[in-house]
């Protein structure tokens, strides 16, 4: 990369040192790709926006313990994983509600 545009690995080294500007650059570089990947599956703008922010927040919080060699690959896998978790959670939500209804006395159902 040119001097004006640092490589992902250069940004990552700076992020691990707590450089907020490097994190902002990385976020700007990849947020659209992560959003697009998640939107392909979810078709929900709000959920995808939250998912993207969660992924980047986790990167910032865990920056000292993460070993990321390719941000593009890491973020693609992270977005797919988060989509999977969200879809799984949504599929279980109706079952959870049904189980809760089964605990109501029968008089409440009338």
Elements, N to C (H/E): HHHH
Main beta-sheet strand count, sense and barrel state: none
- Tally of helical runs: 4
* Termini separation: 69 Å
Radius of gyration: 19 Å
Q: Report helical residue fraction.
A: over 70%
**Sequence stretches where pLDDT stays below 50 over 5 or more residues:** 106-110
Percentage of β-strand residues: under 5%
Number of strands: 0
User: Would you tell me the overall average pLDDT?
Assistant: 86
What does the overall shape look like?
Answer: elongated
Structural class comes to mainly alpha
Task: Describe the protein.
With 110 residues, the chain is mainly alpha-helical. It has four helices and no strands. Helix 2 (20-42) runs antiparallel to helix 3 and helix 2 crosses helix 4. The protein is elongated. The N and C termini lie far apart (69 Å). Mean pLDDT is 86; it is low at 106-110.
Notable features of this structure?
mainly alpha; 4 helices; 110 residues
List the helices and strands and how they pair.
Layout (H helix, E strand, L loop, with lengths): L7 H9 L3 H23 L2 H17 L9 H32 L8
In short:
With 110 residues, the protein is an all-alpha fold. The chain has helices at 8-16, 20-42, 45-61, 71-102. Residues 106-110 have low confidence and may be disordered.
